[in-house]
Amino acid sequence: MNYKTTSLENNQIDYLTACFGSVYSNILSEKKIRDMAKKWFEIRDVIKKDHNALIQGKRAKLYNKEVLNSINNGGIIASIHSAAYAYPLSELCHMGFNMQLLISNEIAKTHGAFFKKISNSFGSKLDILVAENIMSIKKVFKHLKKGGLTYIYMDGNTGVGGVQGGDRNKAEVKILGKTAKVRTGVFYLAQRAMVPVVSALSYYNSSGMNCVEFFGPISPLNKTEKERIQCTNKIYDYFNHFVEKYPEQWEVWFYPYRIWTGSPSPIVTIKMLKRKQKQIFKFIDKNQSKIYVKADPLKIGILKSSEVYIIFDSKTQRVLCVNPVSYKILKESFNMISLKELSKNYEKKIFIHEASKLVLSGLIQINTNINN
């Protein structure tokens, strides 16, 4: 596929490099991982153009269309944000399906009009419902019971209670070898309404062709939690196959905290902070030039956007909003810099405080030997 090069922000590339590095650092070089991050941004430009062309009537190549016969009397279409992710919904509209679209409140505000344009261009009816609203879930249930069709993006991983809610109704699945904690609400609805679930995926094949493929159906036989978890794992097996094959086409790399779980964040006490501050103060006071500060760019990403400074820690899947000083210290630490050299750019007291927090958070390390 011949991707058109776009203007790319270096800090965004660094951020994505850390995200990809959280999965591929043991099998790929830093250069290859960084190239994946660049390609991710380049594909976003292709997706934008294809979505604009979609409104003008552009079509995708369809595979396994016969699977859709299983939802003639109602069902759920479950998808993820892969490649030009609006194309499966577009193709369904082109076939004459009227649907509900269950999406987050944020996406409803930013992309609701776009999805409406798609359905209107094919003369189909599309009702947009907000996933965080409990009344939306009740509307979906009634719609499905009447033989309707509902479209859901599962990797948004939101619902009533937002991204952090729904812990009681989540399953652990594997995506790219990493444990992900995902909602099982799609199959809860399928169980209660007694309808099948068909998965839909959009992707660019090796020739650059925009393709849409359908899988399934998955039809829950009973209403147990065990079966919801089993069905959720089964559908993510479909998704994982394509994410493994086309990782740069998956949208979720820019918000991995929605999906992946990580090790617990470090617990830091005031006593620990004061002890670390004293240690760093002694290092600086003794003017020891052989003490180095470092951070791993394959495990930590930083992003500056609209005056907000963000750190992504791939080990714990933490997304932290930090002040400019912490951001700059971390950014400079990627290049293995001496503590003496690093600290001279800041007021001493402020530097010691911010550096201590970064060390205790596991984001930077202080070594007394460059080979450590």
Description:
With 372 residues, the chain is an alpha/beta fold. It folds into two domains: 10-258, no CATH class; 270-367, Outer Surface Protein A, domain 3 (Alpha-Beta Complex), CATH 3.90.930.40. The protein has eleven helices and 15 strands. The protein has helices spanning 10-24, 30-55, 87-94, 105-121, 134-145, 185-193, 225-245, 270-285, 324-333, 339-343, 348-360; strands spanning 61-63, 75-79, 99-103, 126-130, 149-153, 170-175, 178-183, 197-204, 210-218, 292-294, 300-305, 308-313, 318-322, 337-338, 365-367. The strands form four sheets. Strands 1-9-8-2-5-3-4 form a seven-stranded mixed sheet, sandwiched between helices. Helix 1 packs across helix 2 (30-55) and helix 6 (185-193) crosses helix 7 (225-245). The longest helix is centred in the first third of the chain and has 26 residues, at 30-55. Residues 1-8 have low confidence and may be disordered.
Sum up the structure in keywords.
372 residues; 21% strand; alpha/beta; elongated; 2 domains; Outer Surface Protein A, domain 3; single chain
Strand and helix map with partners:
Elements: H1 10-24, H2 30-55, E1 61-63, E2 75-79, H3 87-94, E3 99-103, H4 105-121, E4 126-130, H5 134-145, E5 149-153, E6 170-175, E7 178-183, H6 185-193, E8 197-204, E9 210-218, H7 225-245, H8 270-285, E10 292-294, E11 300-305, E12 308-313, E13 318-322, H9 324-333, E14 337-338, H10 339-343, H11 348-360, E15 365-367
Parallel strand pairs: 1-9, 2-5, 2-8, 3-4, 3-5
Antiparallel strand pairs: 6-7, 8-9, 10-14, 10-15, 11-12, 12-13
